[in-house]
């Protein structure tokens, strides 16, 4: 098999549409998710690469387009784990002491352990860190 | 009377590095944000910001009464 054939076999694109209206462990729902080519800039001109908004357990994600596949995967793991931890009054003990670097490390470990972020893998991540129930 | 179950949070990953946590109450429009200290726990910083936000909401409610 030539290199081109390997690339075609191994290349997996993350289709973010699979996450829309996705119900997750812990009773969380990804109501909406999008990639944008436009800069994500707030009222005072700060540029962002990702923004996760939540009300109760419903999340909306906006991610800057152009990330590599591993970067997008790690970003999804990171955003969901951190949003779940912030959204509820009593998150599992495994995440209550996490700082930003800890969330990033957990996201990178999830990507290495389970591969690209997917609905099943986001649930594995939440279960692994102690989020329970629908 | 504000509905505290409707408080929105935004976690914003800045292009220049760092993370912002913003709380917004849509009815009053009140918003409060904090750039998260990288070494401190996120949950504790959120609880601290939420306490300050709820105190501010109470002041808004009292002013409006």
Structure in words:
The complex is a heterodimer of chains A (134) and B (65). Chain A has 134 residues and is of the alpha+beta class. Chain A has one domain. Helices cover 42% and strands 22% of the residues of chain A. A five-stranded mixed beta sheet of chain A has the order 1-2-5-4-3. In chain A, helix 2 packs across helix 4. Chain B is of the alpha+beta class and 65 residues long. Chain B has one domain. In chain B, 35% of the residues lie in helices and 31% in strands. Chain B is built from one helix and three strands. Chains A and B meet through strand 4, helix 2 and helix 4 of A and strand 1, strand 2 and helix 1 of B.
Feature tags:
heterodimer, A: 134 residues, alpha+beta, 5-stranded mixed sheet, globular, B: 65 residues, 35% helix, elongated
Q: What is the average of the pLDDT values of chain B?
A: 90
DSSP strand count of chain A: 5
Whole-number mean pLDDT of chain A: 91
Secondary-structure element pattern of chain B, one letter each:
EEEH
Number of strands of chain B: 3
Global structural class of chain A:
alpha+beta
Q: Main sheet of chain A?
A: 5 strands, mixed
What is the helix fraction of residues of chain B, given as a range? 25-40%
N-to-C CA distance of chain B = 9 Å
Number of domains of chain B: 1
* Number of separate domains of chain A: 1
Question: Given the C-alpha coordinates, what overall shape of chain A results?
Answer: globular
